[in-house]
Structures are given as C-alpha cells and as structure tokens.
Amino acid sequence: MKDSDIFTIEKKIGYTFKNKALLERAFTHSSASREATKNYESLEFLGDSLLDFIVAKRLMVENPDAHEGALTSRRAEIVSQEPLEKEIEHLGLAKFLIVGKGESNETITAHTKVKSNLFEAIVGAIYFDSGRVEDAEKFVLSKLRSHFDGSYKHAGEADHKTELNEFASKHKIKVEYKLIEQSGAPHSPTFKIEVLLDGLYAGVGIGRTKKAAQQEAAKMAMSRIKGNEDR
User: Fold this and answer.
1) What's the CATH class of domain 160-229?
2) 3 is an active site residue
C-alpha cells in the first residue's frame, strides 16, 4: 500500500496508525493472502465484537428505560451489513481494498458483506493499534452518528422477531417473511406467513394479523434453531 493511500485512509477514518502494517492488513482481502496474520478476517472478528459492545453501550445511555428486546432489535439494525456498507461507500474506502492477483477490486467490493467486513476490520485494527476501546468507539460513533441522534425511544418487551433478528445479525443471515396464504372473510382475515433464512424455509405462522403470523413464524424458527444447537 502506498504512503499516499495510507495518508488518505487515515484522514478519512480520523485515526493515525502507529503500526502502518496493521492498517494495510485491515484492507487486505483473503484473496490476496490466506495467512491469518496478513488478511483482515481476524481483525473483522475482533471488530464485530467491539461494534456490538460500543453500540449497546451507546443505546443504553440514550435509552435507559428501554427493555432488553428493544435494545437488541435496535442494535441489530445498526450493526447489520447495510449501514456499515453505506458508511464505507460514503468514505470512499472500498477502492483501497487489496485483492488477489487476477481478482477485480470492483467485483469483490460489489458485495455488501465485503464492505461491512471492511468496516469491522477497521474497528478491530484501531483497537489493536491503540489498545484503547475509546479510540475504536470514537471511530464508530462518529461514522454512525446518524443512528445516535437521540430520536430512538422505545421500551417495548422482547419478542420472537427480535430474538430471530439478533441471531440472524450475529450470523450474517438474511431474514425474510413471505405471505403464502390469506383466508377468511375480508373483515376477519387469517394470514399464513413463512419465514426464510438466507432463502431457506425456517418456520411458518398463522395469525389474525400479519404481525401476529410473523411472530409465530419467528417463534417456530427460533425453536428449530435452539433444537439444533442442543443436539
């Protein structure tokens, strides 16, 4: 990585690295190196955990009366792939990703997951370089500040959809609810809804409202997930 690129990246993220090799590692895709100490994957692993902590801490400060379920749901929204991808795009950092020979930067960085992983790798690298959570926190809160404007106020109870969303966020799984049947009189309909995880059937629910049916579908999905984990 050229010195001019390092300078530009540091300016964009608002942090100057003592160990420039660590910054380069945070921008090295596994296609460029499979060695754990030379690509961003372990830094992304660390950054993912730090991001959860930093966002949870901030949400608790902003919403001291919120229940666990509401905080969990909001955190899952903030740390999901899309917000992180958008910030990487906003900062113009994807073009600096180092990819393997014969690979295209544009092709690899076209994936949402790659850009969200890059954001998390930067968080991990900042912490690893400084040894201070505060420095990683400064980066996260400054770049995701639109999500922490104090406008989110909710103290609802936990529910099955929240639990499923948290699981899906942690495992980078897409959750989708699909209406498969509507029956009954127009004034009193019954809805049957499937929940899909990464496009695969995970559960089905029936209810008098779509929301109630989604809750039942999520409940079944979580029951199946927990059942598999216990085996």
Assistant:
1) alpha beta
2) no
